[in-house]
Amino acid sequence: MSKDVKKDERIGENDDLQQANSVESPLNTSTPKMTNSDSSPKLTRTPSIDGSLNDDLVSVSGNVGKLLPSSRMSMDSFSVRSLDSSAIGGRISSRPFVFDHSNHSGSMEYSPLGNNSIFEIVMNTRRKNWLGYPSVQDIPPVVLTKDIVDPEIQNTVMNYVQSIGPECAVFESSNNLKIINRIEQIKQLEIHDNGNNNFGDESETALQNKENLKELEKVPDFYFSKNFQLDNPRTFQKVLKNVDLQLGELSIESKPQRDHAYSELRDRLNDYLDAVEGLLVGEISKSSHKFFHALGDVDLIQRKAESTVNELDLLVENADILDKEKIQRRIDLLQKTFKRKNVQKLEQGLLQVKQVLLRTEECRKLYEKEQYDICLHMIKSIDLLIKGDGSQDKAVQQWVQGWPFKLADLKSVPALTETREFLTNMKIEIGGKYSLQLCSVLLGDVRNYCKSVSSKATLNRLQNNTREKKFLDIDEGFRGKVANIVHQLRRCEELASALSLYQDKCIAEIKSIIKSYLPQETLPSESSSEDKKIGTPGTQQYPQQQQQQPVNNGSKLSKLIKEQTPMDFQDMLVHIFTHASEALRRFYRHQKLLLDLSLNEIVSANDPNENQQSMITQLDIRNGINETIRILQLRTGKIIAVRRELTCNLRYDHFLELYSICVLFIQECEAVSGEFLTRYLSDVLAAQIKNFIVNQSSKNIRTIQRKIESETWTPFVVDPSVQRDVNDIVSSMELDPIDWIKKSDLVRASEEDEKNDDDKENEKKEAQAGHKKSVVVEDNTFVASDSLLTNIGLIKEVFILAVNLPSAYLANFEKMCYDLLRYFNIFAVAALNDPAKSSLQSNKNYSIMGESLDCLSRFVHIVQRFFQRLSNFNKDYSSLDQSHYNHLLHQYHMSSEKIYMANAPPPPAPV
């Protein structure tokens, strides 16, 4: 087949494209739209039938040559949409645009697109002095004409596009010369072959290759460039090379010229393609002998492969024979050997199970005999025997001595599930026995310690009168006994639960202490035995329980508590607080002892499976003791709250004693626990103080009123104790008297109560014998009256309360003193103005009333100075203003003048 025939086969497929392009289009009457050279639209896209001048079709004007009979398929690489009229040079001239100005040239200095006024105006390449953006006048709008296409032309173009669809798809898949440039590779291969040719004579093949190279040199170099892009207008212009395709004149009249131009361009590209094909054929012919040699090698390899397969088949047959005769026989022998060993291991496993059951029965008998220590050793050994680990246990090694195989792990054996549960429960039971034993030993120590300490000694310790710390003493025998029990509990793995049980026992112990001192309901027949005291004097011990079981529900117990005398109730609280304080101190000593022994036991055990960090938190019983303190304060607070109405009417010294013992106990709880656990007892005590102050204030005023109403205003005998109280009141302006501070000392108060009764009787007798009826206040002597001495006593009580109670209530106490002085004056003046007081008018004892008022006027200054001194030591408290006391002194001065006027002699009669 000739070369021309091949060319016709490749090119004949594009005849329809040439004919379609030869059809005249009405688009020639308008100016086409400029397109970007970088865009490369596909040829398969249907031309716009309804389009306008904005289509991507570029008009190219020029002469049309004659249509040649042959064409090449390489023309399919042309993209009509990528042609640019400015890129076609030579004799091809571009059609001018409607908006182009005559004074603009196609120089590339102003526009890379040639005659493109839009680019020049927008980019401002000519008029550099423009200050603003281009306006509508600079860029006149393009007037578009209606796009009317002949239906015949439209149908022709659409049919042509459909017919060239498959060829266009082939072209799109093979037109990328940028990725693989085979022409460039062929040229390099030829140069390499020529450099390696050592033969001097030129054969016929070499001459043919040189001819092919000469033909290939005719192909322009830009075809072999890596950046070859046919859609680039300049590249496309080089490909055309003075050939005018007249793409802008798609009319029937211009068809011959377009066909001639297509033929000319096709012949040129066919020549280039022939040169490339000739070189390819030459290169292929040079390597043909290598191809035949390769085919021979393939046949040889195939024959050798068949021989190898046959030999492998023979080898497989021989291996099968050898397997049946020798290997299989040995495998059977090994299987029998393994089977015998497995049977032996099974027999040993059964013996191991039997040994577990026998040892478990022995362990049960030891438990029944209460030999807990040996039982624990046995349980540990049985556990190791079940786990199959007897390397470190001598008992297990003795049990399995002479056994040939390693012990099996029997934990997953269902038959031993009940046995393992039995051993676990036995260990728990033993741990429970030791836990009860530990609690019994520790609680026994607490009770013995509390019995050895008296209430007086506890009060001395609470009031810091002694530094003796007997609660820290631990007997070595007791320590060793506890250490032994802790060791056994650790072996039982019940140490944490035992300490938890002891915490519960501590709470129960404190509850029993409180309950033992509460009043009990007795039978009528036993009411005569009220002289029996609770416990032995001077020691902390539990009261003796009555023979009958008292039924004390909430209402009955509250009634019994309310029926107690103030002294009995106070003694009950003292016993509860002192006994509980010593018990708490001992509990905390036990806490340190147990933690020390438990940590030493855990460290000595060196058990890698034990989490020591979590164990330490479980071994500390501080939280349980703190809970004991919280419950203790809650219960005692409820007991105190039952008598809140009775507490308001207590004598001031009894109230101070109640306050002191409660405060001492609260401070003791904070000292031993290191934190403030509950505010309940403090809140109850604060409420009691407030109620007491309110009740005491109103009670004092009523007392003064009754005294003045029943006062006869006669001189009253003054006891020496009253003068001492006056002296203490006067000295309190500078410092607190010692006797007042001692009121909070519970030990001294209890010792002096018995002495004070006898001393008061003696002082009354001495005062009556001496007939002293005056009071000395700051070197001033005043005749005493009964109401005056009562008021002084009440002022002293308020002063003592202010010194001993918290400073938060100083304002209330100052108000109480101020009211005592103010209401005394008010009630005295009211009695003076009351005509019903005939006794006062008949006896005319106005001077005694005046002495009393003058004496109390001195106390106004003392009260002011006393509370000013206390305010200097308390930032949160400030005494009353001076104006209040000045007003009170002014009232006393007016009352004295009124009494003087009432007691003045009548004026002389006129002469």
TrEMBL record:
<dbReference type="GO" id="GO:0006896">
    <property type="term" value="P:Golgi to vacuole transport"/>
</dbReference>
<feature type="compositionally biased region" description="Basic and acidic residues">
    <location>
        <begin position="1"/>
        <end position="13"/>
    </location>
</feature>
<feature type="region of interest" description="Disordered">
    <location>
        <begin position="1"/>
        <end position="55"/>
    </location>
</feature>
<feature type="region of interest" description="Disordered">
    <location>
        <begin position="521"/>
        <end position="553"/>
    </location>
</feature>
<feature type="compositionally biased region" description="Basic and acidic residues">
    <location>
        <begin position="757"/>
        <end position="769"/>
    </location>
</feature>
<keyword id="KW-0653">Protein transport</keyword>
<feature type="compositionally biased region" description="Low complexity">
    <location>
        <begin position="540"/>
        <end position="550"/>
    </location>
</feature>
<dbReference type="GO" id="GO:0000938">
    <property type="term" value="C:GARP complex"/>
</dbReference>
<dbReference type="GO" id="GO:0015031">
    <property type="term" value="P:protein transport"/>
</dbReference>
<comment type="similarity">
    <text>Belongs to the VPS54 family.</text>
</comment>
<protein>
    <submittedName>
        <fullName>ZYRO0A03278p</fullName>
    </submittedName>
</protein>
<keyword id="KW-0175">Coiled coil</keyword>
<dbReference type="GO" id="GO:0005829">
    <property type="term" value="C:cytosol"/>
</dbReference>
<dbReference type="GO" id="GO:0042147">
    <property type="term" value="P:retrograde transport, endosome to Golgi"/>
</dbReference>
<feature type="region of interest" description="Disordered">
    <location>
        <begin position="751"/>
        <end position="772"/>
    </location>
</feature>
<keyword id="KW-0813">Transport</keyword>
<feature type="compositionally biased region" description="Polar residues">
    <location>
        <begin position="17"/>
        <end position="51"/>
    </location>
</feature>
<keyword id="KW-0333">Golgi apparatus</keyword>
<dbReference type="InterPro" id="IPR039745">
    <property type="entry name" value="Vps54"/>
</dbReference>
<dbReference type="GO" id="GO:0019905">
    <property type="term" value="F:syntaxin binding"/>
</dbReference>
